Amino acid sequence: MSTTGSKEVLEMEKLLTSGPVIGHPTLAELWEIDHWVLPPARSDNQVRIYTFLLQLPIIGEADVYVWCPGGSQKTRYSTRQVYNLLREQLPQVSWYKEVWFSKGIPKHRFLTWLMVLNRSPTRDRLMNWGLITDGACLFCNSSLETRSHLFFDCSFSWDIWSSLFHCMQHQSPRSWLEILDFLHNFAGTKAERYLLLLTWQATIYALWTERNHRLHRNNYRSASSLTSDIDKMIRRRIASIRHDEPHLSSDMLTLWFSSSLPLQ
Ligand SMILES: [Zn+2]
């Protein structure tokens, strides 16, 4: 801390301005050669602040900011470090790389996150809350709509997902948890992995959007039309990373084109 920078306003302004120090004093105004010029303290808080001030060594060098997140001194402020200190620390979940992978589409990642937590308003949950009495699946109308049924026990959903998955030269398990497990343990190339995750999340997004359109707009689309949408979403995403990661984008596009999608 230095007295030469006359524009510095003391950090403890809130407490000081409620007492005898009026306005917005600068450090230079409160320091005179070798001692503080402070009015008598009027509260315990001000006594504590004065005690703290008296312990500070005053030197003639320029001021610098020093951040101490977690007790370690840093010359640069890090939002990440401060955020991690402020937020509640929880154990890392096993599926975070499948949900929050860096090349994912943000709205797809968010919806997938809700689905992994089973927090989306599927009709089984709406029935449990007493909001509806008919919980039938809007795709097949033959089973209760649950997360597991939508992804991908339902024959409508399964036809879309299994055909996309098969085209990428993989055999997919059918249950929600087994698919998560498969994606988690997938040992292919980075391009293959990103493509699988993009396809998985885009399929979840397309199916949930279609389910909402059927429920709220009475608007029905075919499986081939949804597959076409998923194809476009994936192509656009691959194109969007071409500038930053041309090789990865090229590998993903080659893989995607080499998969014989039913619509091609
Ligand atoms: Zn169904």
Listing every helix as H and every strand as E from the N terminus to the C terminus, the arrangement reads HHEEHHHHHHHHHHH
Rg, please?
A: 30 Å
Q: List the ligand species.
A: zinc ion
> How confident overall, as mean pLDDT?
86
How many helical elements?
13
The portion of residues forming beta strands comes to under 5%
**Main sheet: strand order:** 1-2
* Number of structural domains: 2
- Overall shape: it is elongated
Look at the helices and sheets and give the structural class. Answer: mainly alpha
- Low confidence ranges: 1-9
Tally of strands? 2
Largest sheet: 2 strands, antiparallel
Which bin fits the share of residues in helices?
A: 40-55%
End-to-end Cα distance:
69 Å
List its traits.
264 residues, mainly alpha, 13 helices, 2% strand, disordered N terminus, binds zinc ion
